[in-house]
Amino acid sequence: GREVEDICKASAEEFGAKVEIEYDIAVKAFDVEENSETAKRFKNCCASLGLSGELFTTFGGSDCNVFAQYGVDGIVVATGTNNCHAGNEYTSVNELKMAAKLALELM
């Protein structure tokens, strides 16, 4: 954002250089309403498996971002990833099994 732009410009100025920054939106955010049919179905499926079904905001991108632009409501369901995108990212067999059960329940 603007903070990064300001830092880059200030750093360049220290060395007598200039920075030109162009912004391109690669992923558009989407939101699923708590009371939407999609959210209700997800929460019901989670409840039947003893899961919380909590909806929360992320800053990632997925196919759902594209689908949402065309009016297709969806939820990104994680597979129980821990330390996501870090060098020590992992999951467990139990988390994978539960993700598979949830996928079947959602079908």
- State the total count of DSSP E strands: 0
Describe the largest sheet: none
Q: Based on CA inertia axes, which overall geometry fits?
A: elongated
Helix count, DSSP H or I runs of 4 or more residues: 4
Q: Determine the fraction of residues in helical runs and give it as a percent range.
A: 40-55%
Could you name the ranges where pLDDT drops below 50 across 5 or more consecutive residues? none
The run of helices and strands is: HHHH
The overall pLDDT, averaged over residues, is 92
CA-atom Rg in angstroms: 20 Å
Describe the protein in words:
The chain is mainly α. 43% of the residues lie in helices and 0% in strands. The protein has helices at 2-14, 37-48, 63-69, 93-106. The protein is elongated, with a radius of gyration of 20 Å. The two termini are 39 Å apart.
Fold blueprint:
Layout: H1 2-14, H2 37-48, H3 63-69, H4 93-106
Give a short summary of the structure.
The protein is mainly alpha-helical and 107 residues long. It is 43% helix and 0% strand.
